[in-house]
Each structure stands twice: as structure tokens, then as C-alpha cells.
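fyi for ur records
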Amino acid sequence: MREMDVVVVGAGQAGLSSAYHLRRAGLEPDRDFVVLDHAPRAGGAWQFRWPSLTYGKVHGMHALPGMELTGADPASPSSEVIAAYFDAYEQRFDLRVHRPVEVSAVREGDAGRLLVQTSEGTYATRTLISATGTWDRPFWPRYPGQETFRGRQLHTADYPGPGAFAGQRVIVVGGGASGTQHLMDIADVAAETFWVTRRPPVFREGPFGEDEGRAAVAQVEDRVRRGLPPRSVVSVTGLPLTEAVRDARERGVLDRIEMFDRVTPAGVAWDDGRTIEADVIVWATGFRAAVDHLTPLKLREPGGGIKLEGTQVVRDERIHLVGYGPSASTIGANRAGRAAVRSVKRLLDRAGHADPAPVPA
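which gave:
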């Protein structure tokens, strides 16, 4: 068992931002804090994105604190560009991320410490910053007959790019950004595509400035404050009406059909007798917060979510969630990392943590 002042779980945007601010606060990696990441290499969830999602198609990617992302080829896959950027960032600030390390559970320990159980042993820590995002918890809705479908079903988390759908009839389920991206990807190679959503999609026209951004974040933050499961920031901002989206709408690629009632062996069906036959169903139905490792601590509220004040868990001041709810955007994750470290530092100082010398930026 190793003792730490802070354990950071996850090395995506939120985890790296937190680690950077821990260094800025004078804490030393592998002595005062440790960053644990289950991925095989640097890049957070970006490393798993499909090849056709090029860097030029990424909306709102904000640089990590202290180091800009410059000179990236917009035609290169975002998985390669951002993974290389994250790797360079880890090296520049000497963050010493441990990977691949699986965190199975966080439990109550002795003397006010938390026990973080991992594939490389147990850490006893004074505080925990959980920056695990959502990519590891794809949400699959359940519909009658789903198990009878003779074709292929996959989730956005397993999306391989458009080539796998050449000549096939494809149903894409989900009205978010991933669903529209998949449709625009697949439409040029598939025999036919169908877009099915529970609610009519909302397309956002005009500028989206700071005021609009703050209003969207406030809606998500309100749910978290009330202990409800968070909605994504994107879910309250609507879909940006880009030129590519306009073109897809004009070509009928984004003609939405209301949600079907059941899945059949050959496709999907509605209670009014309509049916669609398909070879593939792509579930672009989003993700949930990956916080199962915190289950032993019983942090959830009756509403099903984890109540936060800022980034701090209301039920346990030692624990911060970054990249959760209102901080689940790239810029939100940066700010949340800084806020979490300030709060963690105050708690450590109160407990008599001895400050090492500050590390230059």
C-alpha cells in the first residue's frame, strides 16, 4: 500500500488539467500525488474516436492549461492529433501518468484516508479527484425484440468509420452530435440510411457566445446541485447548423423519423404497422458518467446522481468530480481541474500537509 495526498483517476482533459494544477500548487507526482489511467496510451477518450472524425471536424476543442495545440493538420484523425498533444503535454509537465491501471473501487480506509484499489495495488489517499468521464459507459436503451435482430448492432463507442457500412441499410438511433456525424459519414457509402430519434432534434443557428454557453452550463449545473443524473452540455445547446449539416438536411440525410416501438429480426417496427428492414442498427445514444468505482462510498442521492458543490461531492469533501455534468466540456474540464485543486489544497493545508517548493510553470 502506498500513501498519497491526492489520487487522480483518469488522464483525459479533466485529469491532465487537475495534474497540471497540482504541480503548480507545489505537489510532486509519485510523492504527493499520482495519476492513474486505464487507457493503453495518452489521449484520453480521444484515442478511441473513429478515423473519419478528423481534427477539422472537432468543435470546441480547448487547449490544456499552459500549452497550446498548434500546427495540427485539420485533415488528420482527431484521435492521432489529440493523443499526440496529450502525450507531449504529459512529458512537458512531467506528470508521470501510470498506465494501463484499472481502478476497481474506492473504499473508506483508516485515519480518514480513502483506499483506492487498483490493478497495481492499493493507494491510501487523503483526497481523490475522479476524472473518468463517460466514454467507458456507453448507454444502450432497451427495446422489445432487440435480442432477435439478425443484423449487426453497435454503439458509438464501437463505431469503426463509414467503410464498414458500404452497400448496407443502416438505422442510426440518436439525435445528438454523434448521430448526425455518423449519418453524414455513412450516407455516401450505404445503400440507405434512416435516422430515428426519441425527440425532434434541435438545430442551433446563429452565434453561440459566452452568454449562451454560461446559460447552457447553468442548466446542467442545476441538475447536479439537486442530486440528479447530469445531462450533457451538448444536450441543452442544440446541434450547430454547420454547412455540412445544412447540406445533409437538403439531401434528406437528416430527415428524422420518430422512435420505433420494437426491434424485429429484420429491422424495426411501429405499432401503427410501419416497418423498416435494415442490416445494421447504430445506437448513437450517448454515455453515462463512469463513476462505478465510487459505489462503495454510497455517494448517490435519491434522485440517482451525485450532488456537487462546484466540483466537491457534498457527501464527502475529500472527493472531487471533474469532467462530470457541467464540467464535461473541454473548457469546463480545464476550469474544473483548477477549482478542484484549490479545494483539495485547502483541505490538505487544514490537515497539516507540508508544502514542498512550488514547481515553475
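The mean pLDDT is 91. thats all i got for now
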